[in-house]
Amino acid sequence: MGEPASQTLAEQAAATQTRKADHLRVCLEDDVQFQTTSGLERYRFTHCCLPELDRREIDLSTTFLGKPLKAPLLISSMTGGTEFARTINFRLAAVAQQYGLAMGVGSQRVAIEKPEVMATFAVRSVAPDILLFANLGAVQLNYQYGLEECQRVVDSLEADALILHLNPLQESVQTNGDTNFRGLLTKIEQICRQLPVPVIAKEVGNGISAPVAQRLVEAGVRAIDVAGAGGTSWAKVESERAKDPLQRRLGETFANWGIPTADCITAVRSMAATIPLIASGGLRNGLEAAKTIALGADLAGLAFPFLQAAAESESALTALTEALIAEMAIVLFCTGSPTLSDLRKPGVLEKLNP
Question: Rounded to an integer, what distance in angstroms lies between the CA atom of residue 16 and that of residue 2?
Fold first, then answer.
């Protein structure tokens, strides 16, 4: 996410930090959700009134990139770079540690520009065992970032993998956004070859199509987060914070642009049967999370619900997490599915007629 070339490094860092604060404020205070849906409502589980199971024995455990998880839930990338963001991140990490979930942090570009805020991301002290993802914008590889910066954000977090997020629409709507995506795939491929941890490609809410996913996998990306349309619209977020009337209009025009999450999952999974796959974009409860697993995802990622709860209190965050896990367990129980893999059996999830 760019700034004018005439800015000094200090000014650029301050602008990035301000943007981080704006993003949190807008997401929590304004209506920046898609009007279109994730597409998950087009699917329904087949109820089994005789599951022949003890619900207490339902197993939600899984592994992702070789690391065990107690439930297939990812606290998706959100924030960092400010004191409020630090509070959010540490609360999220503590609940991820307690319940055995995965977690990603927000873009760490601000910490590259302003190293003193790296501590707002560094959650290992409260979450020594979680599957943890570092995060940078892929487009920054075209703006003087390279292996050194990628390694730095991974090391600072003691992260298990690096997310390179793809956000051409957000950059186009954002005032002075970084919009040079030319030749980016080759640079992503170089990072995949050189970085000692896996690279995950992620959209930010507009979806990854099967053809693009295939190119990313061929480049060496080890996992895909489809981050489809249906949740928070970053075009809307940028529109809300824009001071430029043109940028505000662009954000409104493209507020509902993207591929619905459900369509992304089925398309990418049909293209690559084994690539580790994260489904995010508009998931709001454990029932929807379970639908993404049934459609072929390995993890279900949620951001906005976790952000709301973490901003409220630690107890609200705990209550949300327990509800999500209970909802997923009920889905397995009431479909006669002892494990997550059983959700993918024929007849468990059906697509409704249009």
Answer: 8
Cα-to-chain-centroid distance, residue 298? 13
Specify whether the CB–CB gap between 159 and 125 falls below 8 A: no
Q: What is the DSSP string of 53-113?
A: S-GGG-B--EEETTEEESSSEEE-----SSHHHHHHHHHHHHHHHHHT-EEE----HHHHH
Structural domain contains residue 43: no
* C-beta of residue 178 within 8 angstroms of C-beta of residue 3: no
Which residues, 6 or more positions from 36, have their beta carbon under 8 angstroms from its beta carbon?
229, 230, 256, 258, 260
Looking up residue 182, the CATH number of its domain turns out to be 3.20.20.70
pLDDT tens digits along 106-138: 999 999 999 999 999 999 999 999 999 999 999
Any idea what DSSP says for residue 115? Answer: G
Residue 337 belongs to a domain? no
Q: What is the mean pLDDT of residues 288-309?
A: 97
Whether the model pTM is above 0.90: yes
The verdict on residue 42 lying in a domain is no
Domain count, the chain: 1
- Answer for the pair 36, 44: CB distance below 8 angstroms, yes or no: no
Mapped onto helix, strand or coil, the DSSP state of residue 40 is helix
DSSP string, 230-297: SSB-HHHHHHHH--SHHHHHHHHHTTT-S-BHHHHHHHHHHH-SSS-EEEESS--SHHHHHHHHHHT-
Give per-residue pLDDT as tens, 42-61: 999 999 999 999 999 999 99
Question: Is residue 145 domain-resident?
Answer: yes
Q: What does the alpha-carbon distance between residue 86 and residue 120 come to, in Å, rounded to a whole number?
A: 4
Burial class of 127 by CB neighbour count within 10 A (0 to 12, 13 to 18, 19+): buried
Cα–Cα distance measured from residue 286 to residue 330, given in angstroms and rounded to the nearest whole number = 9
